[in-house]
Structure formats: structure tokens, C-alpha cells
Design brief:
Elements lengths: L8 E8 L2 H10 L6 E8 L17 E7 L10 H19 L3 E4 L3 E4 L2 E13 L2 E11 L13 H5 L5 H20 L4 H10 L6 E6 L2 E10 L5 E5 L4 E4 L3 E4 L2
Parallel strand pairs: 1-2
Antiparallel strand pairs: 2-3, 3-7, 4-5, 5-6, 6-7, 8-9, 8-12, 9-10, 10-11
Helix pairs in contact: 2-4
The structure holds biotin (BTN).
Length: about 240
Amino acid sequence: MGAEVIGRDIYFKESLDSTQNFIQDLGRQGFREGAVVVACRQTKGRGCRGRSWASPPGGVYFSCLLRPKAILLRNVSWLSLVAALACLEAVAKISRLKLRVKWPNDIFLAGKKLGGALCEVDACAQKINFAAVGIGLNVNTTELPPEATSLFLHTGKNFSENLIIQEVLGQIEKYYLKMEKGKSRELMNQWQKYCFFKGSRLKVKTLGRKVKGKACGIDREGRLLLRLDDGRVEAISGGDIKKIS
Ligand code: BTN
């Protein structure tokens, strides 16, 4: 499936500090929605929560410029959910592998991290001026830490990076346009289906406190729902999450 809006302006770069910086520059200059930049490697790739994202050749690194009109800042986590699910569906279609999404923005293969999405926004009050949605996928990467994997390391086969990018863009566009029309059901259903945490007990560090409970889904705002030991259900917007059992 091809994308019509996302990727209509596309830039290919050999090396960048971060594709997120490139897209944010376009965003500030007023470029239209849908611009995408792809880099073969990044020298200062960023991950979530201030982490760095190692970006050697062989991986897929790109960012998209979005200008959501209906998605407000309070629902910005939808964009991370869209990006992670789009990656899962695109890579699963091409590789025929069974993947999982880990809330809110990780893609897992056989219990190891295959990739992740990062959403950075420029907003005023609730209105998002632009969002830079970045994706890193370990496709043909050969050297990774033990907690991560790549399609090549898992299967011994090389995959077309361009084909993966094209499929991911198509899937992002499909879900993004639906979310802009307020149609969140398909995204939520697919997320519940592929969620790595479903039914697991989790330990969550959020807003300076620690809570434990059983993951019981995500809500319409894209928050993770945790049934605490006293029976209450808490909606988690972000934090450091570990699976206990
Ligand atoms: C995470 O799992 O922490 C998110 C990783 C996101 C990495 C991608 S690679 C392309 C884009 N540019 C960056 O600097 N980061 C994102």
C-alpha cells in the first residue's frame, strides 16, 4: 500500500545528526505536512526519555512531518501508537514474522527490541503546530546490544530498507488519517491484539512514584491501563515500564 500525503516530499541523506532535527527545521520553516527524511546513518540519533539511539548503517532511520488539525496535544500519544503499530504491521507483512508492540512506542521481536518511534511536538496550548514522528528499525543491522535484535540477526536474511520504509509510510498514513477523523477504534483494537504487555504484571515508574499492577489495555487517549493490587484502574501516560511476570 502506498502513501499519498506522507512521503510526497522525501529527502534521502547519507548521514545526519538526527532526522528529527532535519524535520523540525522544516516544520519551523513552514513546510507542508508529509515531508519525510531518511538517513543511512545518524551521528546523534535520539531515543525516548533523553536516551541516544545508535544508528549504524543497515538500520532504517526516518522522520515525518505531520500537522495534525484534530489531534490535540492531550492526545499526542496517539501519534506514537500510530507509528509503532504502523511499523509492526509493515514489517510483519514483509517478513511474515510475529511481532509485538510494547506500550507506547516499541516494536518487539522474540522478546527483543527491533525498533521504536519517537514523537516530538511544537505546540501552543492544545494546538499542535507540527509533530516530528521518527522511526528507527533494526533491519539489516549486524551489531546490537543483547536486549535488541534486527531482522537480519533473527532470520539470517537481508531485507529491502526502501520497501520497509514505503510500507511503514503507507500504514502511518492509513491510521493517521483515521485518527484525524476521530476514528480511533481500529487503532485501539489492533493495539490490544499485538500488545506485548497484555495480561502481564508490570512495575511502572511514573511521575516520581512506583506502581505495580496488571496491564489491562489502553484507553481512548492511548494511555496504558493498569489494574493496581487494590483493584483500582490507573491510566498511565508515560514512564519507565518493566514486566514482572
Ligand atoms: C525509542 O525507542 O527510544 C525511539 C527511537 C527512535 C529513533 C528514531 S531513528 C529516526 C529518528 N531520528 C532520531 O534521532 N530518532 C528517531
